[in-house]
Amino acid sequence: MDLNALRTANPDHWSKATAIRALTLDAVAAANSGHSGMPMGMADVATVLFEKHLKFDAADPRWPDRDRFILSAGHGSMLLYSLLHLVGDAQFPIEELKNFRQMGARTAGHPENFLADGVETTTGPLGQGIANSVGFAMAEEILRARYGKKIVDHYTYVIAGDGCLMEGVSQEAITLAGRHKLSKLIVMWDNNNITIDGPVSLSDSTDQIERFRSAQWHVIEADGHNPADIDAALTEARASDLPTMIACKTHIALGHAAQDTSKGHGALTDAEQMAAAKAAYGWTAGPFEIPADVKAAWEAIGKRGADERRAWEERFDSMPRSKRETFNRALNLDAPKKLSATIKAFKKQMSESAPKLATRASSEKTLEVLNPVMTETVGGSADLTGSNNTKTGDLGVFDTDNRAGRYIYWGVREHGMAAAMNGMALHGGIRPYGGTFMCFTDYARPAMRLSALMKIPVVYVMTHDSIGLGEDGPTHQPVEHLAISRATPNTLVFRPADTIETAEAWEIAVTQKSTPSVISLTRQGVPTVRTEHKNNNMVERGAYVLADAEGKRQVILIATGSEVHLAMQAREMLQAEGIGTRVVSMPCMELFAQQDEKYRKRVLPGGAVRVGIEAGVRQGWDQWLFGERGKYGKAAFVGMDRFGASAPAEELFEKFGITAKGIAAAAKGLL
Amino acid sequence: MDLNALRTANPDHWSKATAIRALTLDAVAAANSGHSGMPMGMADVATVLFEKHLKFDAADPRWPDRDRFILSAGHGSMLLYSLLHLVGDAQFPIEELKNFRQMGARTAGHPENFLADGVETTTGPLGQGIANSVGFAMAEEILRARYGKKIVDHYTYVIAGDGCLMEGVSQEAITLAGRHKLSKLIVMWDNNNITIDGPVSLSDSTDQIERFRSAQWHVIEADGHNPADIDAALTEARASDLPTMIACKTHIALGHAAQDTSKGHGALTDAEQMAAAKAAYGWTAGPFEIPADVKAAWEAIGKRGADERRAWEERFDSMPRSKRETFNRALNLDAPKKLSATIKAFKKQMSESAPKLATRASSEKTLEVLNPVMTETVGGSADLTGSNNTKTGDLGVFDTDNRAGRYIYWGVREHGMAAAMNGMALHGGIRPYGGTFMCFTDYARPAMRLSALMKIPVVYVMTHDSIGLGEDGPTHQPVEHLAISRATPNTLVFRPADTIETAEAWEIAVTQKSTPSVISLTRQGVPTVRTEHKNNNMVERGAYVLADAEGKRQVILIATGSEVHLAMQAREMLQAEGIGTRVVSMPCMELFAQQDEKYRKRVLPGGAVRVGIEAGVRQGWDQWLFGERGKYGKAAFVGMDRFGASAPAEELFEKFGITAKGIAAAAKGLL
After folding, report:
1. What confidence tens digit (pLDDT) does each residue in B242-288 have?
2. Is A631 in Cβ contact with B629 (below 8 Å)?
């Protein structure tokens, strides 16, 4: 590249873009780690975006009607941090950049949404940002339909690299965006031909332009180092009635000795090469120094949206109060006042009628009362609507002709669904839930982990949660998936036993502000075990005594979900033989672990043998069987220690010994 | 559809295809569950494939040079079972079909490779079969390059549905196939416009034809109910020098009242509608009855390949003996004779030189000696070759001009890599291993679970296995991933402490015949802890005493991987205070659990407090801290109970208290 030609053609642009490149080089050198090449390659595109297109106000990075900027290629975090510093975001003084990748800094190795207001989403695991962006854009459409264009009217811009586009989840994302004509979604592809292992051609020969077109996107090609070209492409993209991909031809690590090589992807810390690159840029300022005129120009960009924001605030304030309150309540993730009473009334009715129901059907019944009072929910399923029981009568279907619809047919895209739900939650104003089979937690895993890491209260509705699904066989029968979800920090895993516990689990899940939930639900019918109505939400304690021992307590049976009623039957057998048996229902291990020791010991006192019962693997159970006890007792576990099989459900429970008789025998074997 | 016209145009074809439809209806009705519509829609395509193109011999379904037939749309399992019965596969008498989806039957709800020789792979989780097929086709290329066209020369045929193509992994698969010009891979897309939730248009508007073209595939459109059209397409596909996708326009549940509806996807059991469908087909035979002439015609198809197979056997027998032996050894998953001595010699050398190395580097050193003696290995990485240390000097890179290459640049496609490795292992003759960051286990999860379920010894090389990776931060720092892998049945999870244990772990992993392995490796350097050479493979016992207590044993420290040397340091501190401390290295919990009780108690006797140490979550540890003990003792765990952070590695270990001092303090707190 002839840097001199670039500089002289657009000197003002050049100095602004070069500030990003210089800060990147300096921060990576200071940290002695990081990724220099991507910010250096995409600095021109980002500069034009921020200067001419992105609607934002650096003074209020959380302004609800801002355009969203998603850095899907999260390893290029210095691009984002440089921009936030340059435009004057108060959370990004130069000290933060000097502390790049150090303990406690906002400038983490990859952008973390929970560390700074100006970071929209956590990226780094490739493909996640572009998949989040579909949820961002859908949320914008839904809220625009609801509040009108004067209140909600913004774009979602994404920078994605070759790595993002190679990940399968990107296909799920772009086909969703194409199907729903998310015209306010604009992806800028950093087309630099380089991945870590070498040139892209080493592992890929995809025609990305034709690929996006096949997904019904508008595609524009642009020279990623020509500001006029980039500007024209962005203008055209904003006018399109389809989602737009701008293929930005760029040079990774522009101007550095490592330009156009895979080495350029990583940390460029060689002092001589850095000096040479800065000289080639015509950049004479010292490390972390930005010439005053350049900084002033960037700060003016940071204030570009201030008037627009104030005008928006006036429009917002002129909305009817109830509308404003609902808008803010949803944004703040506050529960509607009616929720608690609604759930209580539902529980009362259900404990009286005591239906035998699959808990997935209990979940649907709960949603039928919950969705009307909690209008920020948006439901969906990955092509299993009838099986996941996620659709209720009032939602309406989100579509090109019904942007106010609150139900999304995600198609066979578990991963794309989960990542888009993350995007919706991050956008704000929406509380998403989505369903698939529990076993396909596997497909959604990368995004489910990010829900937890990002501290967003997405709800995963995972039905068909054990061998109880029967004939579909071991590919569809989860055995390790409760353990997987429980192993993940900051995740609530609910396995309710009946309709009452299901309603209580939902109440907790939809009132979370910073924790995602997995609700594990049965395919098969189970009886109501909570036949006595209680106003208190018992699931909130994580575990509680469902039926106490008569006579001397010799046995404690601890069970979850569809195995609770088996434990109750086993208790009857044992009591009939004079063996005092307590049944503890444990719908949420994480909440039980959070209770004080006194409560935990009241529920699980010493002096009795314990049997854990769950149609899944034992991993995660030993803490309740052996842990926290004043004196040693014996314990056993009734569950699965292998994959399941294809056969009717009742036969499978027999085959694997998960029966009332098996439980009673396990308990007696310990006495 | 005018069934009459179809029937009269090709009466012989029609009766053969209708036999599939009738058997499907009968089996689903008998099971009262299953998926009827797909086999009914694709019966014509499958009939033409088996009659005119597929190279197979029903008498020997494992003939190594057979064409592979992959039913990616695994819910349509009755298509496969019907075909296997009709062609005369001895494992599929009519009784098996009558037992569809029943306990112990080969005819599981979804096809399970381990239940029948004629089932190439386990499908059901959508997208997996088409992604496996890439590995099948690569394995064929590699073995053809090695053994010549006379010994290895076959096609891989795949039937995939809309669901398969919506899953992201399908994009990873088809772009890999396109990049590598896998011309002997032929995908037949069941283009029926229907998914479970309704018409495909509800959730997708992708132009699949342009999408495959953008991935450099040859695409042919065919009428999926016109045998001549299908035949011509398959002929053209076989001649193409690109992978080919045949878009087969079909009607789901052809001829049934539910034709062309999402209801048709499921179990069509209504007796009257079944009778009407059969009448429309002109099918008068009773349930599970096949007219003799139709069965004879199918059995002739089943014998079509017999001569070809015999000719192949003659060619095979005329190969040099050593070549035959190598071929069969690899196919049977037997280890080469030299392996054991090679690993021993390497261990001796390493225990003497006692290097401080990242275990990922130890892994590379091991592979440098292992790959030359074990020529069936094929390595690779998902665009992290230099970080995963998976490439050794002798492998050569698999490419269009080097089909004998044994290293694959998988690109940023963890899921596609894992699924393709499954395909390679299932094909036979190849022992695949592949690397990514431990944290991105998440992306590969659906295929990793299937390695375990399918009982195939794929090796996952997972580096950067803790907060020890440092600055890249929590998106890249696994904390729950060891627990996730350990929760999965039939999976060996190794976390070696140094070069010696790494070599031992590899030796075990590459001698498995029916169990996949996860080898968890550090980014950061760790000292050699096994400085005394032992011929025995100590990792084989799962855990062992690395250093025993001096004086009265008061403390047992149990650690894995990079925390073992911290435990050794803590032991020194404790011993210096007169506290007798044993260190147990536990590189593989699964293997330790398989040891007899006597050995386990010898390693973990009662009477001492225990501290478990691992830079991951506690889940899975309590069994070793509390379980199996003669008398109650106290225990603690030093590890992670939250996500990590972005900072230098040493600071992170300090911050989270995973230090020798922290371990010693935890132990002392229990005394």
Report:
1. 999 999 999 999 999 999 999 999 999 999 999 999 999 999 999 99
2. no
Residues 6+ apart with CB under 8 A from B145: B402, B403, B404
- Which of A204, A409, A641 lies nearest to residue B203, judging by beta carbons? A409
Question: Tokens in use for B380?
Answer: 């690779």
According to DSSP, the β-strands at A185-191 and A156-160 are parallel
pLDDT in tens, B480-519: 999 999 999 999 999 999 999 999 999 999 999 999 999 9
Chain B residues whose beta carbon lies within 8 Å of the beta carbon of residue A480: 449, 484, 487-489
Evaluate whether A438 touches A463 at the Cβ level (below 8 Å): yes
- The answer on pLDDT for A387 being more than 90 is yes
The one-letter amino acid at B368: E
Give the pLDDT mean for A552-565. 97
A516/A97 Cα distance (integer angstroms)? 31
> Pairing mode, if any, of strands A194-195 and B407-409?
unpaired
- List, in order of start, the domains of chain A with CATH numbers: 3-309 (3.40.50.970), 338-526 (3.40.50.970), 542-670 (3.40.50.920)
Residue type, position A116, single letter: A
Q: Please report the sign of the dihedral spanned by the C-alpha atoms of residue B642, residue B648, residue B650, residue B655.
A: negative
What lies within 8 Å, CB to CB, of B501 at 6+ separation is: B359, B494, B530, B538, B539, B585, B587
SS3 A581: strand
User: Residues A30, A40, B465, CA angle at the centre, nearest 5°?
Assistant: 60
* Pairing outcome for strands A517-520 and A525-526: unpaired
Asked if B199 is an interface residue toward chain A (Cβ–Cβ < 8 A), one would say: no
**Is A659 in the B-facing interface, judged by CB distances under 8 Å?**
no
A190 alpha carbon, distance to own chain's centre: 24
- Return the amino acid letter for B115: L
Q: How many CA atoms lie within 13 A of B601 on its CB side?
A: 9
Give residues with Cβ within 8 angstroms of B602, minimum separation 6: none
The residue written with tokens 């050569």 in the block is B396
Residue A378 in 3-state DSSP?
strand
Identify the three-state secondary structure at position A70: strand
- Return the number of CB contacts < 8 Å for A and B: 347
Residues 390-419 of B with CB under 8 A from A: 409-413, 415-416
B2 pLDDT above the threshold of 80: yes
Question: Could you read off the pLDDT of B215-231 as tens digits, one per residue?
Answer: 999 999 999 999 999 99
Per-residue pLDDT at A630: 40
Quick one: average pLDDT of B618-633? 74
pLDDT confidence bin for A634, thresholds 50/70/90: confident
What's the whole-number average pLDDT of chain A?
97
Give the sheet arrangement for strand A431-437, strand by strand: A407-409, A377-381, A431-437, A459-463, A517-520, A492-494
Q: Model ipTM?
A: 0.97
Instruction: Say how many C-beta atoms besides its own lie within 10 A of residue B208's C-beta.
Output: 21
Distance from CA of B14 to the nearest CA of A (A): 30
Q: What is the pLDDT of residue B630?
A: 40
Q: Does B427 have pLDDT greater than 90?
A: yes
The answer to whether A264 and A194 are in contact (CB under 8 A) is: yes
Partner-chain contact A479 B489, CB within 8 Å: yes
The whole-number average pLDDT for the span B32-52 is: 98
Interacting residues of A312 by C-beta distance below 8 A, sequence separation 6+: A63, A65, A151
* Total Cβ atoms within 10 A of residue B350: 23
Burial readout A325-353 (b: 16 or more C-beta within 10 A, e: otherwise): ebbebbbebebbeebeebbbebbeebbee
Residues of A within 8 A of B387 (CB-CB) are: 196
For β-strands B525-526 and B357-358, DSSP reports them as antiparallel
How deeply is B393 buried, as exposed, middle or buried, from its count of CB atoms within 10 A (0-12, 13-18, 19+)? exposed
B 203-262 near A (Cβ less than 8 A): 203-211, 213-216
